[in-house]
């Protein structure tokens, strides 16, 4: 059996365009991998959310195996007042990031957006289905991610905020 070559990718645009996300992405209020419109820090108790980031595990060089148990986590730890969240969404249900589909901001600190799961440093399965690695492109579902900023965050806005790496792992046999 020959293993596939895979890459973490981000989908953007009205008609999805997949691009390498392994150099890093910026959680913002834009439909791009490296947007510069910051998530505002609430001035009183509450959590504000980024626009969605559509992430996939993509096959870039085919194999003769199957890929299953796609997992998501982050390496390291988050600064107080920052949180990351994910949900499993079929690639066929891709939605372009926009203000209309970002989670509703909350009046509570540390809020989890409806339908999302808090991301942690232990890998969590977001898609357990098995798919052949015999074709290039997204393999399995997307992990749609958002970042939350609550009023306890004391840093400033912008791309200079350091976050741990988002890690996509999987089984291949």
Would you spell out the secondary-structure blueprint of this structure?
Layout: E1 5-12, E2 17-20, E3 47-49, E4 53-61, E5 66-74, E6 82-89, E7 117-118, E8 124-127, E9 131-132, E10 137-138, E11 142-150, E12 166-172
What's a quick, concise take on this entry?
The protein has strands spanning 5-12, 17-20, 47-49, 53-61, 66-74, 82-89, 117-118, 124-127, 131-132, 137-138, 142-150, 166-172. The protein has 173 residues and is an all-beta fold. It has one domain.
Annotation keywords:
mainly beta; 173 residues; four-stranded antiparallel beta sheet; eight-stranded antiparallel beta sheet; 12 strands
Q: How would a textbook summarize the main sheet?
A: 8 strands, antiparallel
Low-confidence segments: none
The percent of residues in helical segments reads under 10%
Please report which band the strand proportion falls in: under 5%, 5-15%, 15-25%, 25-35%, 35-45% or over 45%.
35-45%
Mean pLDDT metric: 95
- Structural class of the secondary structure composition? mainly beta
How far apart are the first and last residues' alpha carbons, in Å?
8 Å
Q: Encode the helix/strand succession as letters.
A: EEEEEEEEEEEE
Annotation field: number of helices: 0
Number of domains as seen in the coordinates:
1
Work out the radius of gyration. Answer: 16 Å
Count of individual beta strands: 12
Bulk shape: elongated
How is this structure best described in words?
A hairpin with a 4-residue loop joins strand 1 and strand 2. The strands form 2 sheets. Strands 1, 2, 3, 4, 6, 7, 10 and 11 form an 8-stranded antiparallel β-sheet that branches. Strands 5, 8, 9 and 12 form a 4-stranded antiparallel β-sheet that branches. The chain is built from no helices and 12 strands. It is an all-beta fold. It has one domain (5-172).
């Amino acid at each position: 059996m020959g293993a596939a070559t895979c890459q973490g990718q981000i989908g953007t645009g009205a008609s999805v365009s997949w691009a390498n996300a392994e150099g890093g992405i910026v959680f913002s209020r834009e439909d791009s991998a490296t947007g510069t419109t910051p998530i505002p820090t609430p001035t009183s108790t509450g959590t504000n959310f980024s626009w969605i980031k559509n992430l996939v595990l993509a096959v870039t060089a085919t194999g003769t195996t199957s890929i299953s148990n796609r997992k998501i986590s982050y390496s390291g730890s988050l600064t107080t007042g920052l949180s990351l969240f994910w949900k499993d969404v079929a690639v066929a249900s891709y939605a372009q990031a926009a203000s209309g589909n970002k989670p509703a901001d909350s009046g509570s600190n540390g809020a989890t957006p409806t339908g999302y799961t808090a991301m942690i440093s232990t890998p969590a399965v977001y898609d357990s289905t098995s798919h052949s690695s015999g074709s290039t492109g997204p393999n399995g579902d997307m992990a749609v991610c958002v970042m939350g900023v609550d009023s306890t965050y004391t840093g400033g806005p912008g791309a200079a905020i350091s976050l741990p790496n988002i890690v996509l792992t999987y089984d291949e046999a």
